[in-house]
Amino acid sequence: MTILIVSLGLLVFLLAVWLLRTFSSKINFFASGLDQQFSVAEISTLWKLARVIDLEDPETIFVSVNSLSKCITNLIEKSRRDGTENTMETQNFLAKLYKFRTKIELAAENKRGLETTRALSNGQRLRLVLKGNGVFAARIINNSRDLIITIPIQDGRIKIKPEEWREKDVSVYLWRKGDAGYVFDTKVLSCGVFWGQNVLYLAHSDKLFRAQKRKSIRTECHIPAQLYVIREAVSDFSQVETAPGFKCFLEDISSDGAMIRVGGKGVNNIQIKLQFDLEGMLILMYGLVRSVEYNSEANQSRLHLECMHIEPAMRNAILSFVYKVLPEDQKNAEVALSELEDEDKKESGNSEGAQELKTAPSGSPAASESKEEKKEKKTEEYSIEIPTEIDPDFLEQSSDGGQGGDGK
Fold first, then answer.
1. H or E element in which residue 225 lies
2. How far apart are CA 266 and CA 103, in angstroms?
3. pLDDT bucket at 162, cuts 50 / 70 / 90
4. Cα–Cα distance between 192 and 314 in angstroms, integer?
5. Which of 130, 283, 293, 329 is 20 to 30 A removed from 74 (C-alpha atoms)?
6. Which residues contact 106 (CB under 8 A, 6 or more apart)?
7. In angstroms, what is the C-alpha Rg of the chain?
8. What DSSP character marks residue 153?
9. Could you tell me what percent of the chain has a pLDDT over 90?
10. 99 vs 362: which has the higher pLDDT
């Protein structure tokens, strides 16, 4: 009897060891998924996707942007084949995966942050804060033993003479492209002349702090769009505009906003609606202009738009564009079209240049027309005068259509 009990116990132990070894990967996968707040059903779907794309270690989905991106791509392809792409369940799951992907990518960027001003590049734009005097704009001329910058300006003018900056303590802010905002404190060592230009010499710093952590990932783009100024409360966020709006271009985009280039001088705190095509999908984005950069020479403005409302499917389409998480056929099409467009632009530029030489003799009006004049003509095509009215009800709309939108 004792031998039988021992044998059964040993058999149970061996079975448990076998089960653990056989299913340990799946057990760990589900445990990791639960730690990241995914439901059992969602984890099960991710497990199946990981098996389909043949991931050697399925758990990398929860730590690797590449692995997760492959799963998202496969999910999009599968949902299209099944006809479930536009269902609420699929769109909500995609939104959750995109949000998790943002979390992974930002966490990775936080680990490789800027540690010293010696790593800054020439041309880097800076904002200097001098206590009691406000904010000044400057840029790095040369990064060597000291940080050599242009004389800081305020409102386009030099308000403090170079020699008056000596020995001043300043806080310096910068935005590192593809990373985040940083701030560091330093001292103005002296002023002088560098490469024939008046400059300030700043002391380097090894104590940089992130001044702004991004809530979303954005990407550069050049997307034509129609801009509509909102003058009254919005009752239907799905309404497609048929009348032409102001012509503009999106220079970068994220699910939380966009940078818009438009002709004329823009103003802060106006409500607008953007309507544009993205990868064959019509996007309607409602938002608030948080800040404006005006270029008086070109008579153009860059509007920093904070998105206040966008439909979930449209948000996912933007995220797909930003992350380039597209099915393989669309990726190939995008690459092909981009290459064709680049070649076309190159050929057009060469042919136009040759045509101008042939048809415009020296001294003729066509030959003497400057690039600036051409730019002004192009700007006039989408020039805009923006009113300053604000609809207080619209400000209460959050990005998901609820109440209480947060400002950036």
1. strand 219-229
2. 33
3. very high
4. 53
5. 283
6. 213, 214, 217
7. 28
8. B
9. 36
10. 99
Cβ-based neighbour number of residue 31 at 10 Å:
11
CA of 91: how far to CAs of 40, 62, 66, 160, in Å? 18, 20, 20, 54
Amino acid found at 310 = I
Lowest-pLDDT range of 69-78, 187-196, 211-220, 356-365:
356-365
For residue 232, give the DSSP letter.
Answer: S
Q: Which amino acid is at 113?
A: G
Residues in a beta bridge with 226: 247, 275
Of residues 8, 88, 170, 37, the one with CA closest to residue 16: 8
Least Cα distance to 279 among 313, 243, 236, 240 occurs for 313
- How far apart CA 290 and CA 186 sit, in angstroms, is 29
Q: What does the alpha-carbon distance between residue 395 and residue 287 come to, in Å, rounded to a whole number?
A: 9
* HSE (side-chain half, CA atoms, 13 Å) at 338: 9
Instruction: Give the tens place of pLDDT for each residue, 272-323.
Output: 999 999 988 999 999 999 989 999 898 999 999 999 999 999 999 998 888 7
End-to-end, the C-alpha distance of the chain in Å comes to 74
| CB-CB contact of 192 with 201 (8 Å) | yes
Distance CA 261, CA 248 (A): 6
- 256 sits in the region (left: phi over 0; alpha: psi -120 to 50; else beta) called alpha
How many other C-beta atoms lie within 10 A of the C-beta of residue 124?
17
- Residue by residue, DSSP assigns 87-120 as SHHHHHHHHHHHHHHHHHHHHHHHHT----GGGP
Region of residue 210 (left: phi > 0; alpha: psi -120 to 50; beta: else): beta
Taking the C-alpha atoms of residue 45 and residue 40, their distance in angstroms, rounded to an integer, is: 9
Residue type, 135: V
Handedness of CA 70, 74, 75, 80 (dihedral sign): positive
CB 297 within 8 A of CB 249: no
Q: In this predicted model, which residue has the larger pLDDT, 245 or 394?
A: 245
- Closest-CA residue to 230 (of 271, 289, 286, 176): 271
The Cα 96–Cα 316 span in angstroms is: 10
Structure tokens that stand for 208 in this block: 């940089």
Average the pLDDT over each of 59-63, 174-178, 254-258, 398-402 and give the range with the smallest value.
398-402
